[in-house]
Design brief:
Blueprint (H helix, E strand, L loop, with lengths): L2 H13 L4 E5 L14 H8 L5 E3 L7 H15 L3 E5 L2 H5 L4 H17 L3 E5 L9 H18 L2 E3 L22 H19 L12
Parallel strand pairs: 1-2, 1-3, 3-4, 4-5
Helix pairs in contact: 2-7, 3-5, 5-6
């Protein structure tokens, strides 16, 4: 095989690498702005070698994500799935057990499809009470340990404390925050693809 043919073959294989699937809610679905302004689209531009598919839907719960996941796995055949779900479960006061059951099934389905899994930590507002908030947060830590998967810190933790990065509802990040969220997520995806841990996690300004 000539050098030119070998380069073309490698380029073809590279172009057809299995994608990364982002399965999230409004925090990942460009809520309140044009689709191309959201952090997932910006991340795609920062990682042009990867095909990143945004399977996020505003208002999505863990139950909704679980219902949609089998079809998404079959149609995209991802090498990596980032699950960012649970916020709407918390806002609706759903039980941590229900959340854990749904996330467990999503992790299992992703692994059965030969995809690596990153679970994004999600937190509920403090006004829901410390007991519920702690039980909610513990679900993600427990699942990461039980299934030996990467737990990514919640990217909203340092965004929400800056009013200038938030939309008027006080829940969703605005357009200004999107590039910073993309920078935060990027090393976690890269580390998962390389089977390593991020040397540092990017701190939002």
């Amino acid at each position: 095989m000539g050098v030119t043919s070998l380069i073309l073959l490698c380029a073809t294989q590279f172009a057809h690498a299995n994608p990364i699937l982002i399965l999230g809610d409004s925090l990942s679905a460009s809520y309140g702005m044009e689709q191309d302004k959201g952090w997932v689209n910006l991340l795609s531009k920062k990682m042009p070698q990867q095909n990143i598919i945004n399977g996020s839907v505003s208002g999505e719960t863990s139950a909704g994500g679980l219902r949609r996941l089998p079809t998404l796995l079959e149609s995209t055949q991802p090498q990596l799935v980032l699950i960012e779900l649970g916020g709407n479960d918390g806002l609706r006061g759903f039980s941590p057990k229900q959340l854990k059951d749904n996330l467990t099934k999503m992790i299992q389905l992703s692994k059965q499809a030969d995809a690596k899994v990153i679970l994004s930590e999600v937190m509920v507002p403090p006004n829901y009470g410390p007991r519920y908030a702690n039980m909610f947060t513990q679900v993600y830590k427990t699942l990461a340990q039980e299934h030996e998967i990467t737990l990514m810190p919640f990217f909203m933790t340092e965004v929400a404390i800056h009013p200038e990065l938030m939309q008027a509802d006080g829940i969703h990040p605005n357009e200004q925050a999107q590039a910073q969220i993309a920078e935060f997520v990027k090393p976690w995806l890269e580390a998962a693809l390389a089977d390593t841990k991020p040397l540092t996690s990017v701190k939002l300004n």
